[in-house]
Amino acid sequence: MPSFGFELSTGLSLGATVGATVLLTNFCALGGIADILFAKDWRRFRSWVLAAGVAIVGAHSLDAAGAIQLDRATTLNPYILWLPSLLGGLLFGFGMSLSGGCISRGLARMGAGSLKSFAIIVVIGLSAAATMTVLAPAHAALARWGVLETFGPGGVHRIFGNLPFVGAETVRWIFVAMFGGGALWFALKDAWFRQSRDHLLGGLIIGTVVVAAWAVAWRVFETSGATSFTAINFVPPLGDLILAAGGRAAAVFPIAVTFGVPLGAFVAGLLTRNLAFDTFAVRDDIVRSLIGAVLMGVGGTIGMGCTFGQGLSGVSTLSPTAFIAVAGIIAGCVWGIRYHEVGSVWGGLKLALRRG
């Protein structure tokens, strides 16, 4: 049985690697989308896609080798929660555009000295905790209304795994090649991206950390008595930590991963002299950022994950729910970016629909 020390040390180590990588390579899902919209620069987005490709291939390699059982993953339920994942993704994406970064970026900035990011992370945690408790009935209703049965673990490869004359493992590797191999090809085909060391290393390291997190999380899960497990997810652990202050039990490993991120960013910033104290610039910045944080906490809980929880960990299982959540996050992010341009929620939506 993994000890408390094992969960704490491995969680902090994996989270610290994420934090240092995010800080030093500027890895950020929001930044990648903004770069495309404003500068036609796809490198940061390709870095995220590269991480997803590595995670898909790595997670299924572990599963095929018997090192983990992906069918027990949180995102591979025998149903597709299309409405909660889509709505949660939209809220989270719009929120992170208001707050100025994805949650991993916020955690890393907090470690590097940002008081603004610290406030945002606290509000995300409080909002997630409220969604888990006060808003739990509404969340459950969404799950009841927006569900599609799949009659088995809900990975794309499992849904099509019973085709006649084709073995389930063959179907799995066809989809791994399509999604994982396709992601790797999309990222690495671009010479400009391949020549950008930071973007290339960022994607490779983050993807590898997700794979390692699957292995550790499975070892913890085997003796935990939990019903499912996941690799890295930042929003639920923040909510769990808030609720733990009231006596509710909380898993050690995901919380350790989450708080390893600012720790790693702090060490990396200290070594590279990249620590910088900052706070909110003006009152409007406070209001906008904290509203964004609330949306991230609510959306990340309803949608069962963030750009890591659904975007990398979830997608690596080939979960349709995760792909829907990612589509919602991207759409919400574009909507939020366009909102910044025009200063109107509905005007931003019209501009997003017109220009993307």
How would you summarize what this structure contains?
With 356 residues, the chain is mostly helical. It has helices at residues 4-25, 29-39, 43-64, 82-99, 103-111, 115-133, 136-145, 156-159, 168-188, 191-194, 197-222, 235-244, 252-272, 283-302, 309-316, 320-342, 345-355, and strands spanning 79-80, 148-149. Strands 1-2 form a two-stranded antiparallel sheet.
Write the layout of secondary structure elements.
Blueprint: H1 4-25, H2 29-39, H3 43-64, E1 79-80, H4 82-99, H5 103-111, H6 115-133, H7 136-145, E2 148-149, H8 156-159, H9 168-188, H10 191-194, H11 197-222, H12 235-244, H13 252-272, H14 283-302, H15 309-316, H16 320-342, H17 345-355
Antiparallel strand pairs: 1-2
Helix pairs in contact: 1-5, 1-11, 1-13, 2-3, 2-16, 3-9, 3-11, 3-15, 4-14, 4-16, 5-6, 5-13, 6-12, 6-14, 15-16, 16-17
